[in-house]
Design brief:
The chain has helices at about 15-25, 40-50, 60-70, 100-110, 120-130, 140-145, 185-195, 205-210, 235-245, and strands at about 10, 35, 55-60, 75-80, 90-95, 115-120, 150-155, 160, 170-175. It is an alpha/beta fold. It has 2 domains: about 10-175, 3-Layer(aba) Sandwich (Rossmann fold), CATH 3.40.50; about 185-245, Helicase, Ruva Protein, domain 3, CATH 1.10.8. The strands form 2 sheets. It has a 7-stranded mixed beta sheet with strand order 4-3-2-5-6-9-7. The longest helix has 13 residues, at about 235-245. It is elongated.
Length: about 250
């Protein structure tokens, strides 16, 4: 079984890293664990030492056969996590293939869970946690902040994977929480985030005008002269509320 370069697969080969990931997850007695993309099962083994309530989702047929032979006590689902309807889970864990980091994260954030530990490309992790004004601040940063507490736990050198990737990785913990600020229309707010960060260096007023979202009466519309990359998530929510308040 060889990793697929086109799918961004690089298998973790350091057992110590896998043990730390499993510890970060903080598995309780009744927690149901979902692992996505277990590959050779190095992380799976660490999880099963802590609980029997593990379900794995793996897309590669060869890896599925290997996992079912190696861990017969575990339920292994063959399929694409982005397309299947997984069983309910409390804890989520994955060494995420670089090529699906963004769609997997956005998919996960729409689900109900207690805690997640994921390992992603280091630059991606930095974007997840970037504050307003940071060079890495993005649509991703706002979406993560709106939905969960995000902690960068440790950096993992590229030498801990096979084949060795061109970049280092970072282990990240996500803990869902209520939104830290009120928003009148969540769908509008999230659509606005997507729209604004298509032109993150431009002024808010310029972007809204280009998208024909700027009302004739601009009174009460804040931050029109601010650049997108400078607005905090809460300020974007304030802008969204002001826009939805106008007919």
């Amino acid at each position: 079984m060889r990793p697929s370069k086109s799918k961004g697969q690089n298998y973790l080969i350091d057992r110590r890293v896998a043990e730390r990931e499993a510890e970060y997850l903080g598995i309780g007695q009744n927690d149901r664990v979902l692992e996505v993309g277990p590959g050779f099962g190095i992380l799976t083994s660490a999880l099963l030492e802590r609980t029997s309530k593990v379900t794995a989702v793996e897309i590669e047929e060869g890896a599925v056969r290997y996992l079912r032979d190696s861990f017969p006590q575990m339920d292994v689902i063959q399929g694409d996590f982005l397309e299947i309807d997984p069983p309910e889970f409390d804890l989520f864990i994955s060494n995420v293939p670089y090529s699906i980091s963004s769609p997997l994260l956005f998919h996960l954030l729409d689900m109900k869970f207690k805690r997640a530990v994921i390992m992603v490309q280091r630059e991606f992790a930095e974007r997840m946690a970037a504050p307003a004004g940071d060079s890495e601040y993005s649509r991703l940063s706002v979406n993560v902040f709106y939905r969960a507490e995000c902690k960068l736990l440790e950096n993992v050198p590229r030498s801990r994977f096979w084949p060795e990737p061109e970049v280092d990785s970072t282990v990240v913990m996500l803990t869902p929480r209520p939104a830290p600020f009120p928003v009148r229309d969540e769908k509008h707010f999230l659509r606005l985030v997507d729209l604004l960060f298509q032109q993150r260096r431009k002024k808010i007023g310029t972007v809204l005008k280009q998208k024909r979202m700027l009302p004739e009466d601009r009174s009460g519309i804040p931050y029109l002269d601010e650049r997108v990359e400078r607005l905090t998530p809460a300020q974007i929510a304030e802008l969204s509320d002001a826009l939805t308040a106008h007919p």
